[in-house]
Amino acid sequence: MAEPKTSRPFYRPQAGGELHCGGVSLESLARRFGTPLYVYSANQIAERLAMFQQALAGRDHLVCYAVKANSALAILKLLAKRGAGFDIVSGGELERVMAATPEAAGRVVFSGVGKTAAEIDAGLKAAILAFNVESEAELALLAARARKLKIRARFALRVNPDVFADTHPYISTGLREHKFGVDIRRARAIYRSAAKDRWLEAYAVSVHIGSQIRSADPFGAAIARVSKLAMQLREDGITLKAIDAGGGLGIDYHDGAFDAAGKVEEYAEALNRALGEFDGRLLIEPGRFLVAQAGALVTRVLYVKRNGKKTFVITDAAMNDLIRPALYQAHHEIVPVRPRAGRACVVDVVGPVCESGDFFARDRKLVPVEPGDLVALLDAGAYGMVQSSNYNSRPRAAEVLVEGAKARLIRRRETMADLLATERV
Ligand code: LLP
Description:
The protein is α/β, with parallel strands linked by helices. The protein is built from 12 helices and 21 strands.
């Protein structure tokens, strides 16, 4: 049974047949592990990483997977084994990397606008590759902690290049009005003053302009500004070893052809072109592009309910399992695991949570489904499970990783005992 090459690892071995991932049917997984269930393809994640590695093969580079997109230990491990580094944004994510793959600590960059002294200490002790520093105050704290622990801190200043990226306002970060980074016009002075501190080593300059950006152009524009800064710093006697271009490359959440490898090549070309004479290392921090399309959220239909003109398909997954549609009006394709014959109708697909915002799709044309049927919400591998919650006291879903013909549970379903464990009456 050959797995066809598409942008998603979910396919039907027979036309109109049951949906599979790798060699396993989603129906068998739902029977074995229950629903709602996150299912990921290890193959696809590895393939996507290889796309970046191949596209950047011509230069010294490191792909630092953005852990926030999906922090499952098994996924971190599979990426680390293939040479990936990590972009983290909290002490918790550092602990995840250390739990999954401690040997990768030297390939970790630490981003985030609100690092605490304890988090900085943990990063210094783990000898991470670099801190992506987001303010002068943070740089001062980093220097103080480094002096105290007598561990030299490598840092990159995260600059704000003032580049507009066309994406959802909640996930756009590269404008001066955003809370991220420091104004690129201030950067030179900050590096110069940091050069006087023997506990600080200016390792790189970093930038991240936002997420789910579909065009390569804004990345090129940002990197052109950043490499210009690196050249100016060289004149000042400060030679940066790396440029960190951040993450943000978008995928296609809609149905239809999507040439992932082509997108990555276009992106790599834009970065390479913009780097110009800069001959140091290139770091990138992709999250979504590596894991989103590798994952689906499999859920069972509980009820089909008609209210006046509207039809609601009520599933056992809810906004607490996948909040992207509710939070960003994000589109996820919804497909039946075993399609039924009949005409498609327009429905709302909703969860059991007591909020009207608890929907996966509104006015969506969907082939007929009946209670008991399974449906898969596609492209849910990034910012799905990691943004889940226990709202309505709903235990969180289980996660399964498919490796070829085998599937294994990488996170068991939460129980009510897990939820109650931290509380006292
Ligand atoms: N690096 C930094 C510093 C970031 O802040 C992010 C994402 C990334 C890398 C990875 O970006 P990616 O390659 O995944 O686009 N929850 C939202 C996305 C938030 C992204 C936040 N930062 C969503 O579900 O669309």
